[in-house]
Predict the structure.
Amino acid sequence: MRSLLADFSAALGLLTRLPTGWLPQHNSAAGFARSIWAYPLVGLGIGAAGGAVMAAGLWLGLPPPVAALWSLAATLLLTGGFHEDGLADTADSFGGGRDRARKLEIMRDSRIGSYGVLALVLALGLRATALAALPTQPATLLAATAAAAALGRGATLGLLRLLPPARPDGVAAGLGRPGRKPLLLGLLLAVLPAALLLPPMAAMAAILGTALATLLLARLAGRQIGGQTGDVLGAGAVLGECVALTVLVAMR
């Protein structure tokens, strides 16, 4: 149990700004890499928190678009924009780099370019409009946001499995290729919320849509930089969540 809690602590500390000092901690890179199974679990909590904020806003009488923006603000506060930063860096890299070395160099640059701005605007706009278009019943809303966020973190696991690290250092290189057990457990936790909380056809469509988006991003990253980085993993989480929410709106 202590090891599982340490796994959860590592995932929580990486993917959110929440304090983890009260939980057991890993002291090795191997433990940190094993914690990937908990990424969808953390995503589930982030999505549920965003859904709860939106439900509260609707209950207070806010129009759905306004409540959706407050929901996004809450999730960005929880994560520190961690995944969105990865999306922006990936877009700048793939769009502006001339060769693999330059693309990897751009990813390390803290400045944001036009491609990154466009990617952020599109991603946040897609999520906000999709949230505003979801059914407003609290239970249905919470189910959709939680399932979509878990699927988005499942996309991260898919990229870890499909691609080698693109550079020898960094967060993604430390994770390496995930072991079979934590990978399978993580993927199960990514799809289980959708399977349990959503109507069967909507769940299947969201899972398949997220899987397809993950495969396409993996192919693009493989061609652009020969593998994955932490920024690509963050981009995968945002893309997966955008696709899942879009599918759920289409299936409502």
Notes: The mean pLDDT is 92. Residues 202 and 249 are 9 Å apart (CA to CA). The radius of gyration is 17 Å.
